[in-house]
Amino acid sequence: DIQMAQSPSPLSASVGDRVTFTCQASEDISIFLNWYQQKPGKAPRLLIYAASSLESGVSSRFSGGGSGTDFTFTISSLQPEDIATYFCQQYFTLPLTFGGGTQVEIK
Amino acid sequence: QVQLQESGPGLVKPSQTLSLTCTVSGGSISSGDFYWGWLRQPPGQGPEWIAYIYHSGSTYYNPSLKSRLTISVDTSKNQFSLNLSSVTAADTAVYYCVTVNRSCKDGVCYRGVLDSWGQGTLVTVSS
Q1: Mean of the pLDDT values across residues B90-115?
Q2: How confident is the model at residue B106 (pLDDT cuts 50, 70, 90)?
Q3: Cys staple from A51: which of A20, A31, A78, B38, with CB 3.0 to 4.6 Å?
Protein backbone atom coordinates (compact mmCIF):
# COMPACT_ATOMS: atom_id res chain seq x y z
CA ASP A 1 0.00 0.00 0.00
CA ILE A 2 1.11 3.58 -0.64
CA GLN A 3 1.69 5.44 2.62
CA MET A 4 0.77 9.12 2.86
CA ALA A 5 2.53 11.31 5.45
CA GLN A 6 1.20 14.77 6.32
CA SER A 7 2.93 17.54 8.24
CA PRO A 8 2.76 19.49 10.39
CA SER A 9 -0.06 18.72 12.76
CA PRO A 10 -1.37 20.67 14.40
CA LEU A 11 -0.68 23.92 12.61
CA SER A 12 -1.44 27.19 14.44
CA ALA A 13 -1.79 30.43 12.50
CA SER A 14 -3.48 33.79 12.67
CA VAL A 15 -6.44 35.01 10.66
CA GLY A 16 -5.15 36.43 7.39
CA ASP A 17 -1.97 34.34 7.37
CA ARG A 18 -0.84 32.39 4.32
CA VAL A 19 -0.77 28.76 5.43
CA THR A 20 0.97 25.87 3.68
CA PHE A 21 1.26 22.24 4.67
CA THR A 22 2.54 19.14 2.99
CA CYS A 23 1.74 15.58 2.02
CA GLN A 24 4.38 13.04 1.01
CA ALA A 25 3.66 9.76 -0.74
CA SER A 26 5.83 6.69 -0.18
CA GLU A 27 6.15 6.27 -3.96
CA ASP A 28 5.51 8.23 -7.14
CA ILE A 29 1.77 8.90 -7.58
CA SER A 30 2.07 11.42 -10.46
CA ILE A 31 -0.65 14.02 -9.85
CA PHE A 32 -3.31 11.64 -8.53
CA LEU A 33 -3.84 13.24 -5.18
CA ASN A 34 -6.88 14.85 -3.56
CA TRP A 35 -7.29 17.21 -0.61
CA TYR A 36 -10.31 17.15 1.70
CA GLN A 37 -11.49 19.44 4.50
CA GLN A 38 -13.24 17.93 7.51
CA LYS A 39 -14.93 19.93 10.25
CA PRO A 40 -15.88 18.28 13.56
CA GLY A 41 -18.88 15.98 13.25
CA LYS A 42 -19.08 16.44 9.48
CA ALA A 43 -18.15 14.37 6.46
CA PRO A 44 -14.98 15.26 4.57
CA ARG A 45 -15.46 17.67 1.68
CA LEU A 46 -13.44 17.51 -1.55
CA LEU A 47 -11.50 20.72 -2.14
CA ILE A 48 -8.74 19.84 -4.64
CA TYR A 49 -8.41 16.91 -7.05
CA ALA A 50 -5.57 15.87 -9.35
CA ALA A 51 -3.15 17.75 -7.09
CA SER A 52 -4.10 21.24 -8.23
CA SER A 53 -7.62 21.31 -9.71
CA LEU A 54 -10.12 23.25 -7.64
CA GLU A 55 -13.44 21.46 -7.11
CA SER A 56 -16.48 23.40 -8.32
CA GLY A 57 -17.81 25.84 -5.74
CA VAL A 58 -14.69 25.81 -3.58
CA SER A 59 -13.10 29.10 -2.55
CA SER A 60 -10.14 30.22 -4.65
CA ARG A 61 -8.14 30.92 -1.50
CA PHE A 62 -7.46 27.17 -1.46
CA SER A 63 -4.84 25.81 -3.82
CA GLY A 64 -2.74 22.70 -4.28
CA GLY A 65 0.49 21.81 -6.00
CA GLY A 66 3.15 19.19 -6.51
CA SER A 67 3.62 15.92 -8.33
CA GLY A 68 5.43 12.66 -7.86
CA THR A 69 5.87 12.19 -4.11
CA ASP A 70 5.69 15.74 -2.71
CA PHE A 71 2.55 17.85 -2.54
CA THR A 72 1.47 21.09 -0.91
CA PHE A 73 -1.84 22.63 0.12
CA THR A 74 -2.10 26.39 0.64
CA ILE A 75 -4.70 28.67 2.16
CA SER A 76 -3.85 32.15 0.86
CA SER A 77 -5.52 34.05 3.71
CA LEU A 78 -6.69 31.98 6.67
CA GLN A 79 -10.29 32.62 7.72
CA PRO A 80 -12.06 31.47 10.90
CA GLU A 81 -14.25 29.11 8.87
CA ASP A 82 -11.12 27.30 7.63
CA ILE A 83 -10.57 25.75 11.05
CA ALA A 84 -10.69 22.04 10.25
CA THR A 85 -8.60 18.97 9.62
CA TYR A 86 -7.26 18.56 6.09
CA PHE A 87 -6.55 15.13 4.61
CA CYS A 88 -4.67 14.15 1.48
CA GLN A 89 -5.58 10.96 -0.41
CA GLN A 90 -3.88 9.16 -3.29
CA TYR A 91 -5.74 7.38 -6.09
CA PHE A 92 -2.82 6.28 -8.24
CA THR A 93 -3.29 2.72 -7.12
CA LEU A 94 -5.63 0.63 -4.98
CA PRO A 95 -6.16 0.58 -2.11
CA LEU A 96 -6.98 4.27 -1.92
CA THR A 97 -5.06 5.64 1.05
CA PHE A 98 -5.22 8.77 3.17
CA GLY A 99 -2.76 10.78 5.19
CA GLY A 100 -3.20 11.24 8.92
CA GLY A 101 -4.42 14.82 8.53
CA THR A 102 -3.24 18.33 9.36
CA GLN A 103 -5.35 20.04 12.02
CA VAL A 104 -5.45 23.79 11.41
CA GLU A 105 -6.00 25.99 14.48
CA ILE A 106 -6.31 29.73 15.03
CA LYS A 107 -3.46 31.21 17.04
CA GLN B 1 -24.71 16.81 -7.34
CA VAL B 2 -26.23 13.61 -6.09
CA GLN B 3 -27.16 13.25 -2.44
CA LEU B 4 -26.29 10.16 -0.42
CA GLN B 5 -27.80 8.87 2.82
CA GLU B 6 -26.53 5.96 4.89
CA SER B 7 -28.87 3.81 6.96
CA GLY B 8 -28.50 0.79 9.21
CA PRO B 9 -28.09 -0.31 12.82
CA GLY B 10 -25.94 1.86 15.05
CA LEU B 11 -24.97 -1.05 17.31
CA VAL B 12 -23.71 -4.46 16.22
CA LYS B 13 -22.56 -7.30 18.46
CA PRO B 14 -19.09 -8.80 18.08
CA SER B 15 -18.89 -11.66 15.56
CA GLN B 16 -22.10 -10.52 13.83
CA THR B 17 -22.49 -8.89 10.41
CA LEU B 18 -22.60 -5.13 9.92
CA SER B 19 -25.10 -4.19 7.20
CA LEU B 20 -25.52 -0.69 5.79
CA THR B 21 -27.44 0.76 2.85
CA CYS B 22 -26.81 3.97 0.95
CA THR B 23 -29.77 5.60 -0.79
CA VAL B 24 -28.97 7.82 -3.75
CA SER B 25 -31.12 10.81 -4.67
CA GLY B 26 -30.76 13.52 -7.29
CA GLY B 27 -29.40 11.07 -9.83
CA SER B 28 -29.57 7.50 -11.05
CA ILE B 29 -27.22 4.85 -9.78
CA SER B 30 -27.42 3.36 -13.29
CA SER B 31 -26.25 6.55 -15.03
CA GLY B 32 -22.72 5.25 -15.31
CA ASP B 33 -21.29 8.60 -14.21
CA PHE B 34 -19.75 7.21 -11.03
CA TYR B 35 -18.69 4.24 -9.11
CA TRP B 36 -20.30 4.01 -5.67
CA GLY B 37 -18.12 3.57 -2.62
CA TRP B 38 -17.82 3.03 1.09
CA LEU B 39 -15.28 4.44 3.54
CA ARG B 40 -15.02 4.43 7.30
CA GLN B 41 -13.35 6.62 9.89
CA PRO B 42 -12.58 5.32 13.38
CA PRO B 43 -12.84 7.93 16.13
CA GLY B 44 -9.89 10.34 16.01
CA GLN B 45 -8.34 8.77 12.90
CA GLY B 46 -8.19 9.42 9.17
CA PRO B 47 -10.60 7.83 6.68
CA GLU B 48 -10.08 4.28 5.40
CA TRP B 49 -11.31 3.17 1.98
CA ILE B 50 -13.44 0.00 2.11
CA ALA B 51 -14.66 -0.73 -1.42
CA TYR B 52 -16.45 0.58 -4.49
CA ILE B 53 -18.88 -0.85 -7.02
CA TYR B 54 -20.23 -0.01 -10.48
CA HIS B 55 -23.92 -0.30 -11.40
CA SER B 56 -23.02 -3.36 -13.49
CA GLY B 57 -21.78 -5.09 -10.34
CA SER B 58 -18.01 -4.73 -10.86
CA THR B 59 -16.42 -4.47 -7.44
CA TYR B 60 -13.10 -3.34 -5.97
CA TYR B 61 -12.29 -4.18 -2.36
CA ASN B 62 -9.63 -3.11 0.11
CA PRO B 63 -7.50 -6.27 0.48
CA SER B 64 -7.33 -5.76 4.24
CA LEU B 65 -11.11 -6.25 4.50
CA LYS B 66 -11.89 -8.33 1.42
CA SER B 67 -12.34 -11.67 3.19
CA ARG B 68 -15.18 -10.22 5.29
CA LEU B 69 -16.78 -7.88 2.74
CA THR B 70 -19.66 -7.97 0.33
CA ILE B 71 -20.98 -4.92 -1.48
CA SER B 72 -23.92 -4.90 -3.86
CA VAL B 73 -26.09 -2.55 -5.87
CA ASP B 74 -29.86 -2.47 -6.30
CA THR B 75 -30.63 -0.32 -9.31
CA SER B 76 -34.40 -0.69 -8.86
CA LYS B 77 -34.18 1.03 -5.47
CA ASN B 78 -31.31 3.36 -6.39
CA GLN B 79 -29.34 1.93 -3.46
CA PHE B 80 -26.09 0.16 -2.77
CA SER B 81 -25.16 -1.84 0.29
CA LEU B 82 -22.29 -3.02 2.46
CA ASN B 83 -22.03 -6.20 4.52
CA LEU B 84 -19.03 -6.71 6.80
CA SER B 85 -18.96 -10.03 8.63
CA SER B 86 -17.32 -11.20 11.86
CA VAL B 87 -17.03 -7.70 13.26
CA THR B 88 -14.89 -6.76 16.25
CA ALA B 89 -14.43 -3.56 18.25
CA ALA B 90 -11.84 -2.50 15.66
CA ASP B 91 -14.69 -2.08 13.16
CA THR B 92 -16.27 0.67 15.27
CA ALA B 93 -16.29 3.77 13.07
CA VAL B 94 -18.34 6.34 11.22
CA TYR B 95 -19.23 4.75 7.88
CA TYR B 96 -19.67 6.95 4.81
CA CYS B 97 -21.00 6.26 1.33
CA VAL B 98 -19.46 8.28 -1.49
CA THR B 99 -19.45 8.83 -5.24
CA VAL B 100 -16.17 7.77 -6.84
CA ASN B 101 -15.20 9.88 -9.82
CA ARG B 102 -12.11 9.89 -12.02
CA SER B 103 -9.56 12.29 -13.41
CA CYS B 104 -7.37 11.88 -16.46
CA LYS B 105 -3.85 12.86 -17.49
CA ASP B 106 -2.41 12.36 -20.97
CA GLY B 107 -5.35 10.17 -21.88
CA VAL B 108 -4.96 7.86 -18.88
CA CYS B 109 -7.73 8.01 -16.29
CA TYR B 110 -7.60 7.10 -12.63
CA ARG B 111 -10.61 6.56 -10.44
CA GLY B 112 -10.68 7.73 -6.85
CA VAL B 113 -11.96 11.30 -6.60
CA LEU B 114 -14.49 11.14 -3.77
CA ASP B 115 -16.65 14.11 -4.68
CA SER B 116 -19.93 13.54 -2.84
CA TRP B 117 -20.29 12.11 0.65
CA GLY B 118 -23.18 11.00 2.79
CA GLN B 119 -23.42 12.50 6.26
CA GLY B 120 -22.04 9.31 7.79
CA THR B 121 -23.44 6.87 10.31
CA LEU B 122 -21.71 5.76 13.50
CA VAL B 123 -21.57 2.01 13.95
CA THR B 124 -20.44 0.73 17.33
CA VAL B 125 -19.42 -2.88 17.80
CA SER B 126 -20.15 -3.89 21.36
CA SER B 127 -21.92 -6.60 23.29
Answers
A1: 95
A2: confident
A3: A31
